[in-house]
Design brief:
2 domains, pyruvate-formate lyase- activating enzyme, six-stranded parallel β-sheet, 451 residues, alpha/beta, Rossmann fold
Amino acid sequence: MASAGHRPVKFLLINPTSPLWQVKLNQRPVNSSVFRFSMLTSLYVAASMPAYVETRILDEDVEPVDFDTDAELIGISFMTYNAPRAYELGDRFRALGKTVIFGGYHPSLLPEEALQHADAICIGEAEATLPALMEDYVKGTLQPVYKSCLVDLATLPRPDRSLLQSRKYITLNAMQATRGCYNHCSFCSVAAFNRYQLRTRPVADVIDEMKTLGSYILFMDDNITLNREYALELFEAMIPLRKNWFSQSSISIAFDTELLEMAVRSGCQGLFLGFESLSQASLQSWKKEVNRRKGYFEVAHKLHFYGIQIFGAFVFGSDEDTPDVFADTLDFLLDANIETLQATRLTPFPGTPLYRTLDAQGRIFDTNWSHYDFFHVVYQPLKMSPETLDRGTAWVQQQFYSYPNMAKRLFRSAGYLNPNILLKTTLPLNLGYRKKLSAYGTFNKGLLFVP
């Protein structure tokens, strides 16, 4: 219903995806549901709209784009890898007479490029700029650029999760307690987007929202333990709720027994950890100062001792990496029994120090943004060929997610993980990654690498 003085506006907010996962008419979703959760950013956008705006969220992972929509205003939020699809959608909707607005990481970092396919763009977090943008839109004075300051998380609106088709997602119980990161890892676009700052929500607000959600909570924080004192306060307040939760943390939590024990008491069941590399030289070159490779086995042992599963992230392709890095990393992953792996090819996202360095050196040979998806090599590595980097990463993935290694890993995990967690998260994640990697041709590509 429109508020006084404003006509109603219908707004379609689209989450574009890779052509591999786009749902066609009368087709079921292709991508595994373990990689579909919450759409929290879109929910915050919808919740920040004025009362006279009726928002519909369309996720291309779940349903096809409706070009016959009666929405007059089209919003598209995207990262670098789906920029070509976003531009395609923007051009087509504008040809149909719709007004198109872009937001998200890629248009924030490359606004001039994005503006060629949209009527307006939001730079930075859209929550703060949307009311003014909509006022201008209904008055016919829409500006091309709306630049946001960093949002005060105390003012965040409560997301309306009913806007999503709950059965199409592994969980809608996703939320945030913090945003951003003050570390300066050279390859990280998240920290750049957040201007290398960390913000926290009032603990009372987080607890109030958690009370409305189910038993399993996914915190979409960049590093939930980065502010130690805040994390301790939050975890202590969470204990009476008796929730099970998962989030992202730095490996330093393993060396802080007080913080780790408080996390466990509050219901922590799994953590995404950015190990990134076994090479200390690589970590230093990326300014990943918090990591110390020599303690990685201790990190895994400590978290497993406390019943926490590990989703480990590794990046291949630093200037220190040679072809030996793949076998060395796989040995660690299997010996340490890391439950789930995200192995990626180093990707120089626009707006990051890494991109500026490689671009200045003339080493970026591919600027097709759809290839900036961690499954392609877009630059010239220093100590191996692009083909070796590509195939070596695929080999690690193929070996890690082979059925024999998955079976051994899950058997060992059963000795320290809650059986419920093992069945509801660890097993589906391993099977989901196997399905996803198979669709990308990873298993066949891995066979071309000889360690």
